[in-house]
Amino acid sequence: MTIRAGFIALIGEPNAGKSTLLNRMVGAKVSIVTHKVQTTRARIRGVAIEGEAQLVFVDTPGLFRPRRRLDRAMVAAAWGGAADADVVVLLVEAHRGITEGVERILEGLSEMPKGRRIALAINKIDRVQAEALLGLTQALNDRYEFAQTFMISAEKGHGVDTLRSWLAEQLPEGPWLYPEDQIADLPMRNIAAEITREKLTLRLHQELPYQLTVETESWDERKDGSARIDQVIYVTRDGHKGIILGKKGETIKAVSQAARAELEEFTGRRIHLFLQVKVRPNWLDEAERYSEMGLDFKDGNT
User: Fold this and answer.
1) Which helix (H) or strand (E) covers residue 100, if one does?
2) Are residues 23 and 161 in the same domain?
3) pLDDT digits over 107-133, tens only?
4) Which of 46, 193, 271, 274 could connect to 30 by a Cys-Cys bridge, CB 3.0–4.6 Å?
5) Where are the alpha helices (DSSP H) in 186-249?
6) In sequence order, what are the residues at sequence separation of 6 or more whose Cβ sits closer than 8 angstroms to the Cβ of residue 291?
7) Which of 141, 170, 199 finishes a domain?
8) Bridge partner residues of 126 (DSSP)
9) Where in the sequence is the domain holding 235, given as residue range(s)?
10) Residue 149: what pLDDT?
């Protein structure tokens, strides 16, 4: 078999299922999955093997109408990830159909470099009837000439193997880009921060201040094989700090325990996790915070 390797960008609206699909493709959790929109901020690469092909997935932030600097940087990162990829997969939610956001993405696809292979994956197919699926497939292919269309359920795994096999065949011939046992190119300290941010999202739901970020300040290896991780949760207001701490510190304690448990499972070692909450009113305008998230501060300019 021919050895192949290349980059695959997953694009779509927030909550279309990109992170779930990435995790399903890779077979491990490399991108945070929550029900809060716009969760994925940086372009997280997950690596999967299919036969002799190495598939490097770029999980982009959801494409939406940007209003703030952080929003604009996220959208620029998403389109940048798509433009740099060998293959692009547009995810559309079956039950939502062609929304205003999907219309904007279809317009953006027409500006992609010529010759780029773009596939359509209609996700969450278990939520609609077959007739509606066929109608949506026809309507989307009338708007844009997709290389291939797939019906999938990223959450349940339906159709994912077929999509992965097709993607492997589309990649350029060449040596693998990463070691065989590597599943993501995001530094471990960034993954640790993402895990904590996910636990905050799950714990706080609607209360969660969107304007927060988590950074791993230090990662110290210990002689007994364990690791001490110190993280800071940055928020923009004092009131947000109180929400995250919770009554008698119960919320941050629960978040810390949940994040530590997942980190221990992910790394296969004992983890000592210490969280602090700091108020930084202007962190959304600090270039350093963006570089920590893998975003370009300049892309946030109007």
Assistant:
1) helix 100-109
2) yes
3) 888 877 777 889 999 999 999 998 999
4) 46
5) 188-204, 238-245
6) 297
7) 170
8) none
9) 188-300
10) 96
Residue 234 belongs to some domain of the structure: yes
Number of domains in the chain: 2
For residue range 28-53, list pLDDT tens digits in order: 666 555 444 444 445 556 788 899 99
Contacts of 195-198 with C-beta under 8 Å, sequence gap 24+, read 195/32, 195/259, 195/262, 195/263, 195/266, 196/231, 196/233, 196/255, 196/256, 196/259, 196/273, 196/275, 197/32, 197/39, 198/32, 198/33, 198/34, 198/39, 198/259
Q: For the segment 182-210, what is each residue's pLDDT rounded down to a tens digit?
A: 666 556 777 888 889 888 888 887 666 55
User: DSSP strand E in the chain: where?
Assistant: 4-12, 44-50, 53-59, 87-93, 117-123, 148-151, 212-221, 227-235, 271-279
Q: For residue range 207-247, what is the model confidence (pLDDT) as tens digits? A: 665 577 888 888 888 889 898 999 999 888 888 888 899 89
Measured from the Cβ of residue 103, the count of other Cβ atoms closer than 10 Å reads 11
Indicate which CATH number applies to the domain containing 84: 3.40.50.300
User: Which of 138, 170, 202 marks a domain boundary?
Assistant: 170
Same domain flag for 166 and 35:
yes
SS3 63: coil
Q: What is the pTM of this model?
A: 0.61
Same domain, 95 and 219: no
- Kindly state whether residue 182 falls inside one of the protein's structural domains: no
- 158 and 198, same domain (yes or no): no
Higher-scoring residue by pLDDT: 181, 111? 111
> In degrees rounded to 5, what are phi and psi of residue 58?
-105, 110
